[in-house]
Amino acid sequence: MDLNILKIFYAAAKEESITKAAAKLNYVQSNVSARIKQLEEELGVPLFYRTGRRIVLTPAGKILFSFAEKIVNIEKEAEKAVKETSGDDAGIAVGFMETVAAVKLPPILITYNKNFPMSSLKLVSGSTEELLLKVLSYELEGAFVGGPVEHPDIEEHSVFEEELVILSNEQVDDLADKNIVVFKKGCAYRRRLEKFYEGCGIFSYKIFEFGSIEAILACVSAGMGVTMLPLSVVKEKGYKNLKIIPLSDGRGKMTTVFIKRRDTLMTKALSNFLKIAEELK
């Protein structure tokens, strides 16, 4: 199977259009159509359903696409690895949870930029679930998320140990009448708080979703409900009127892990970044 033809198939599948794939690859449309037809004849199965200008993968096409995606990305990794043999200054793309970005990230960035001033950084914030999907789809080289992460294509390295606490604007004896103020679904802290409520036999409560730590803490401070966050975040943000409710029996322990795909290279630049993060934990 010709790699160039496989890349044409991959582009067409991603774009769901022969025309768009041709434009992206800077090929004439007839060339793209001919190469896909050649591949279908070679494999003996149709790879696309043609519906007007749009093309949709057949079951056989979906199978081939899963392999093509890995092959295309492996080729990119190989090229990148060769170019980065002396790669302290190579760029990296890394994801962070909002809480890590608020407390842990600044000293890491300061040290990394001081040691490797020519290395560019692309930083993306999101929930654990969002960042996991971005790592799996090769959009990020790695991410700091709430652990553990159980996925066959992912390897993880423990980096930070966090103490989670429940926060309220008043001392709470009974959480049954307390709503929760949290990040959107996919957040490790939200998932932990919901499980905590379930363990207490509480299944009926209102959920307020926000996109930033500041908004969550402000709403908790105003009495809208309770939340669960790392103690380090509370200390950093300085909300003195918040009541901190510790969790017993180790229920407040959470490990922040660094995840990456097993089939991607740990580049020298990424290794440098992770080493600094571990040293400053």
UniProtKB/TrEMBL annotation:
Protein name, as recorded: LysR family transcriptional regulator
Domain of life: Bacteria
PANTHER family on file: HTH-TYPE TRANSCRIPTIONAL REGULATOR, HTH-TYPE TRANSCRIPTIONAL REGULATOR GLTR
Transcription regulation in keyword set: yes
Transmembrane segments: 215-234
Pfam families recorded: HTH_1, LysR_substrate
Family of the protein in this entry: Belongs to the LysR transcriptional regulatory family.
Listed Gene3D superfamilies: 3.40.190.290, Winged helix-like DNA-binding domain superfamily/Winged helix DNA-binding domain
Domain spans labelled HTH lysR-type: 1-58
GO molecular function, one term: DNA-binding transcription factor activity
Keyword Secreted appears in the UniProt entry: no
Record's keyword terms, sorted: DNA-binding, Membrane, Transcription, Transcription regulation, Transmembrane, Transmembrane helix
